């Protein structure tokens, strides 16, 4: 994690497990936006947490959502599934394609 003195949100480390590709993951933007900035090709459609096109599984780390229950069941969340189009990292993460 990198934090500077100008009160910028923390920037965590992200990694796509399947390819080993790494990316910067600022706490204030979605994982999808961060992956896209890094040139990572990740499926996306609605970008609002309903269609599940972007679904991935967190191998490490945790994410937060701006709305309480995006399009995932409680069981899926427990199993580490997340929707990168609306998920913000809470620390370093490793994500896997599903
Ligand atoms: S792109 Fe539709 S849920 Fe993420």
Q: What would you note in describing this structure?
A:
By secondary structure, this protein is α+β, with helices and mostly antiparallel strands. The protein has helices spanning 31-37, 74-78; strands at residues 11-16, 21-26, 56-60, 63-64, 81-82, 88-89, 93-97. It is 12% helix and 29% strand. It has a five-stranded mixed sheet with strand order 2-1-7-3-5. Strands 4-6 form a two-stranded antiparallel sheet. The longest helix is centred in the middle third of the chain and has 7 residues, at 31-37. The protein binds FE2/S2 (inorganic) cluster. FE2/S2 (inorganic) cluster (FES) binds at residues 44-47, 49-54, 71, 83, 85.
Structural domain tally:
1
Order of helical and strand elements: EEHEEHEEE
Which CATH architecture?
Roll
Bound molecules: FE2/S2 (inorganic) cluster
Brief digest:
With 98 residues, this protein is α+β, with helices and mostly antiparallel strands.
Output the keywords.
98 residues, alpha+beta, Ubiquitin-like (UB roll), five-stranded mixed beta sheet, two-stranded antiparallel sheet, 2 helices, 29% strand, globular, binds FE2/S2 (inorganic) cluster, 2Fe-2S, transport, electron transport, iron-sulfur, iron
Q: What is the topology?
A:
Blueprint: E1 11-16, E2 21-26, H1 31-37, E3 56-60, E4 63-64, H2 74-78, E5 81-82, E6 88-89, E7 93-97
Parallel strand pairs: 1-7
Antiparallel strand pairs: 1-2, 3-5, 3-7, 4-6
Bound molecules: FE2/S2 (inorganic) cluster (FES).
